Structure formats: structure tokens, C-alpha cells
Fold:
Amino acid sequence: MGTNFLDNSFFRNIYCNLSKSDDIRCSGGGWLGDGILPAGFEWLAFLITAVVMAMVLINLVLGSVLIFIWAERRLLGRFQSRSGPNRWGPYGTLTPVADAIKTMFKEDIVPTAADRWVFNAAPIVMMVPATMVLAVIPWGTGTFLADLNIGILFIIAITSLSTFAIVMAGWGSQNRYAMFGAMRAVAMLISYEIPMALSLLGVLMLAGSLSLVSVVNAQDVPFILVQPLGFLVFFIASIAEINRAPFDVAEAESELGAGYHSDYSGMKFGLFLNAEFMATILSAAVIVAVFLSGGRGWSFIPSQGWFIIKMIPVLFFIVWTRAAWPRMRIDQILTFAWKGLIILAFINVAVSAILSFVWPDPTMRELWFMVAINFGVLIVSVMAVGAWFGPQGASAPNMSHGDALPRPRPAGQPSGGDS
Amino acid sequence: MNVAMSGSELADAIREIDSEAVTDQSDDAVWITAESWPDVAASLRDSEALSFEMLSLLTTVDYIDHFEVIYHLLSLSKNRTGVVKIRCGEGRIDPTVPTAINVWRGADLQEREAYDLMGVKFEGHPNMKRLMLWEGFEGHPLRKDYLR
Amino acid sequence: MTLKSEPVIVNVGPQHPSTHGVMRLRVAFDGELVTDAEMIIGYLHRGSEKLAEERTFTQVVTLTDRMDYVAAMTNNQAYILAVEKLAGIEPTPRGVWLRMISAELQRIASHLIAIGFLMQDLGAMGTPLMYTMREREDIMDMFELMCGARITNSYHRPSGVFQDAPPELWPRLEAFLVEMPGRIDEYEQLISGNEIILSRMRGIGIISPEDMINASITGPMLRAGGVDWDIRHQQPYEYYDRVEFDRPIMDESDNYARYLVRVYEMRESLKILRQCIDQIEPGPARDPEVPFVIRPPKGDAYVPIEGPKGELGFYLVSDGGISPYRCKVRPPSLLNLTLLREMVIGLPMAAMIVTFGTVDINMGEVDR
Structure:
């Protein structure tokens, strides 16, 4: 049963050391010898290997959450012309560790009015999609837990589970602010799933497969160049999906306190926080895998290294957005998704369909033609949608429109009162 | 420049509106009767010559034997200010003044505050509740006989 | 098909990040839309007006600091002007110039706070706030040079200010005047043209100028409604008739107009500061003949000034004693809230918070 995982070098290294598999890829056993476990215990070897791999990956991502928290706080400090955390450890690197310890030892409060089961289950449900998405991401050549042939579909399906967790948290808290946050989150997440899925259609047409590994392998030219419009829509939609600025209406701290996790404390809050940061890292990982050619690069850096190097600018951009932009309003966010992003995604789908009809099996040269055409489409369509959608301002009743910014004029005489 | 209407000027103007309204006048203020206040206020705001569009400040003062409600009026179009005072609650008994909220909306919070802290009631105010202090607070702190 | 929905009543405050202090709004929501709002204040009520009756005229200055604590200098100024009118004290010229300099610096500081926290209400993650705070820090340092205190200054005294500004202040002020226009441009680049800001602030929270005048709303709010009413120009106090400045007026009367008027007022304040520095003359910063314990004659006095938030003034009554018989503040923050309910009804929750932010209130002044 484990045999189709043996392409995975990580898996093979552990599995072949443990079991007496007769698979050709395991010939000669591992470096420890020809299988430690007796014959007939391949299932145990598989189980141990799978658990070890899951442990390693989850802990690596959790560790990277700590690094990301530190990096984000330092970066935000720089953006805001202050120093950021700098007390614990060199350059404040231990600050997230201290934060984590503090979070663990905080009192775990459950509000009296809360629906205890729902309230307690919500943070766990929140963590599930974040950890499950890990499995299908190709972190490098042969470095993945599972090469699902429906990988992209799996990601889109699993990430929408976090909506449940948010509704559970909002409902279970019996807090009106939390409920507001949950309602906003549901409206937003459901709306943004559509452009997110649509924007990947173009990639799928080019790659001809739903598997993330195949998508990476298909990227002789990174798809950010071949599919710029798809990338733009996917990037915006995934920022919305992970609830970050300027789409952080679900936990809009200036409006709702902390939104759906207002009433959580201690490690339950820690789980929410963790899941959110994991979601950020994983969305960056998906962007790297789908649009930035994953772990491919010049061979003097290992593919895993390339993957991480490519993730850094994506994460930087996400943090930059957060530092620079104010929050959008929920109705504007929904209008933006339905009237802006979905249209752009459909344009992208149409253009990609035509192009892949013209060049069913593109060569390198044809791919570069596609790049040129698609960048033209990007500029024209974004400007067209922007002109139709932008200056009017998103929704809001009785809004006055005008292109030029109004400027106060120096005044002369009093203009009078009740005239 | 600031053109503060003198008391006599303002008194003449008010006498035109209601001949029995003015009870006293000084250099910079006019005292009028509480009963005439709603009509006088409306005319002060609406008359072309005065047009006091804004109630700049509403104050109450506790003069031990009586209370005084002081209205600082402001005309933006004429750039003029005027001061109207109303004596009420002679002998500290039940100081009451008709509300000005129908004339100047800005009287809303100021009258509530005056009621809260000084205990001057404004008849006809739709929401005569305490503003700063809580419901059930005893006494009115800005009165001179309020014991800490 | 119409869905029937039930109003949800939410307490926005007193512990809420965007109420600028401890204010409580009981808001009825229909979905995201505000259907009714009630303002409940008084959580910061300290009875300043009653306390003033127990202190000498000079001691009350410290109480005025604590009313609008982000604009202590203008509060000092308003109070001192009333005392001077009441007691017939003539201020020294240098004292007046120093008072004007400190008041204009304070106006910039107050507007910086207003803009920064407005952006925080808009969810801007603190970046504009940190920028504005950085400049406010400069101003606070200058205040520290002038009077040793940063927030609760108590700098002004009857007949002037309590001590002359040290020589180190002037290069500092010069550098500030050179640097600040660029900083204001920086905010404008970051904020004013941002699409999200525009779509969230334009056309929201409109009140007609007639309503505002009727409701005693003054200051930048009124000027954003197209009414040219600036007491510094219309009824000049101190030496404001010797400086030239423009009043930014906008006709939109929406949140964006209120924001932009504040930005432009900061530029005008810089102009005034420049002229103050040019015209300030040597001499005593206060009249040593004026005693600490003043006994003004019987009477009353009210001097309105243009505070950062609107018309600010102290109505003082003297019975001939050493302390005010009655000291009443005209609180622009409180009066600017008069129409809050009308402004926010029908808006979504997020727009309500922003509208509340553009009114620019200070709870220390609302509750006193």
C-alpha cells in the first residue's frame, strides 16, 4: 500500500530502513541495513514512517510560524518607523517563544453563557484544515507527504472548512461581536472561494493536471508570467481567505474588538492565532507551488531551499499590504469579489482556454508568446474593470462620485448660516 | 472683529419681540422672564436683524437665592454674540426654564448636563435624563449646597 | 422575498478600541446597518467644574489641562483669556506670542492625533498612527523645553506664560517648521489618495451645514461643511489679527472632508507659527506685577477661542474672591456629538466607527 509513496525520497529513506520491502526502489535497503522490522510488518513500517513524516512537517511549519511571527513584527516595526520586538534573544528572535509560553500558561476562560462544546471544539476545527493542506504541498523535488491527483481541488475544499470553525467560534461564544465577526467571515470566505477556484483554472489548463507535483513540473516558465491575471486574482483571494489586511473584517479590531475569537483566551486563542499564521504560510506555499514554479531553480541550492527563498517575498508582500493599507468594509469586500475579481477570473479562464486551444501542447517559445498575450490581457482587463468599478467607489449609499480629489479652498467671507 | 451686542441693544431688540420679556439689563447681558423664552428664542434665531443661528453656550449658575440660566448666542452671518440670562428658582425652589431644543438643537446635551449637574429642569425637553452621572444619583453636584 | 430580521443591540464601549476613551454607544443593528444609536457618557466625569470652585484662579489652570488632554495648551489659553478678561489683566507681548506658538503647536499635535486614530479606526494597522505620533513626539519635546511637561502643560498664566521659552527651543522649532510640510505630504501620499480610504470615507456621515450650526457644532467639522467660521479669523483673540492664514473649507461635509480639512489646517498652523517666530519680540514672558492669587472684581466673562476641535471657551463668574464662583467650559467635543445619532443611522458598522472617529472627540473633554 505504501509503494506509490516510494517516489518520495523522504519517505523512501525511512521506509526502506524499516521494512524488508522487495520494491526495486528500495533495493539494498536503507543505510541502516536491510530492514529492521521482520518480514510481514511492512504495514508497521508504513505507519511509523507516515507518523514521523507528519510530525516532522507539522513541527517544521509550526516552527516557521514562530519565525514568521517574529519577522512580521520586526517588519511592521520597520514599516512604522519603530524598532519592533528586540528584547528577547538576538534581534528579539525569542519574542514569539516567550509569547507562546505566556499563551500556554494563561487562564483558559470559558464564558458562562457559551455553548461549551461548540466553543471548545472551534479552535481544533480551525487547526484541521491548516494542518491538512500541508500534506499536498510539494516542498521540493520529492519532498511531499502525498501527491494527490486532485491536489488543488483538495486544497480548495479543505481550506473552506475553516469557515465552520469561525462560525462555531462566533456562535459558541454567545457574544455579539463574535457573531458579527463570524457572519462577516462566512460571507467573505464563501465569496472569495469562487474567484480563488476560478483563477486556478487557467493553471490547470496549462498543466493538464490537478496534482500540485505535476503543476510544478509543468512550469518551465513560472506560471506567474504565463498567468499574471490568474496570479493577481489568486493572490488577492488568498489574502482574503486567510483573513489578513485589507480583508481582516472578521477580526476587525477597531470595530469588533477581536471578532470571532473575542472570548477565547489561553491556548485556545493560541490555536486560532497559530492556525491563522499557518494559513498565511501555507497560502504563500501554494502560491509558490502553483505560480512560482515551486522548488525549481538552479541546482546549487537544493529545491527545498528554492521553495523557501521564493516564499519569502510572497510573505513579505502580505506583511507589506497589512502595514500599508487600511481595512475594507465588508460590503465593499463582497462587491469587490463579485463584481471585480470574478469577472477578472472569468476573463482569465476565457483567454487561457483560447490559448490552450491554439497551442494545446505549448513549447517554450509558445509559452513566451502566451506570456506576452496574457500580460496584455492583464493590463487591459484590470484597467477596464478598474474604470468600471474603481472610481465609483465600492457600494455605499448616497456616495458622491468624482475623479479629482476635492481640495479645501481658501475662503473669503462667511457663507452664512440658515440660508 | 468680535461684535458683542451690548445689553441695551439686545434688550431693545427683545422688547420688540415681547414687550414684557425684559426684566433687567447690564452692559453685556439681558435678563428676560422664563415664560417669554420660547417665543423670544425663536425670534432671536429667525429675525433678519439678529439671526442668532447658534446657541454657543448654555450655562447655569447657582446664586444661592436663585439660579440663573445663561445663553451665549452667536450669529455666524452677522458675526455677533449676545448674552441672554434667565432668573429662575427663586428661593431655590424648583428651578424651571422652558427648553430651547426646538429652536437650537445644540441645547440638547447642554440642557441635559445642566439638569444633571445643577438641577435646573428644562420643560419640554424630550429626554430630560442625567447625562454625566448615573441614574439614581442623589443631588446635583454643582449646586452650592451639595455636600461631598 | 423579504427576510425578516431582528434588531441586535450591541454595546459599543465603554471598553472598545474605537470609542476614543470610555464612551458607550448602545447601537441597534439590523444586520450590519445601524438602526438606532444612543450615546451614554460620563465614565470619565471627574467634576472638574466643581473642583475649579475650590481652587484659586491660577490653580485652575492645572484642571484645564486634564479636560482635553491631547490639547492642553489651547485649554490653558482659553481659560487664561477668560481670566484676563475677568480681571482686566493686560498680557505682555512676548507672553502672547509664546501662547500663540504653543497653541498652534498644540493644534497640530491634536490634529495629528485625530488623523492617526482615525486611520486606526479605518483599520490601517498603526502605520499612519505611528507616523503621526512620531511628529507629535517632536511637538511634545518642544513643550518639554518650554515648560517641562509634555501633556499636562499648565504653561499659560494670567499676563503671559509662566516662564520664557529657552533659547534651545528656537532651532528646534525652526527644524520642525522646515521638516513638517514634507511630513504632511507624506501622510497625504499614504492616506489621501488611497482607494480604500476614499471609498470608505467619501459620502459617508454627511450632515448639512444648517443642521450643524443649529446643533452648535463648530471647528473643523463645521468648516468641512462649507461654513467659513474660524474664531481666529472672525473674532480674533490674542494676536491672531497680526498673522495671515487661510481657512480650509470644504463643501462635502462628509468624513473625507473632515479629514482633509484637518490636514490642511496643520499647514495653516505652520504658516502661523512661522509668522509668530518672525514677529516675536523680546521682553518679559509675564507681568511680574500680577500676583499669583488674583481677586477679579465681581462679574462674569466668556472668551471663545478656536480650539483644535471647535469653539472652546470658559465662562467664569467671580464673586470677588480668590477662586471662580462658577467655571463652565464650552466643550466642543461634547457639542460636536449632538448629531451623532443622526449621522450614524443607516450606516454599516464600520462606517459608524469611522464617522465617530472623524468627529474627533476627546473623552476627557466630553465628560470633564
Chain B touches chain A through eight residues (CB under 8 Å). The CA atoms of residues 66 and 90 of chain B lie 5 Å apart. The first helix of chain B runs from residue 7 to 17. The mean pLDDT of chain B is 83.
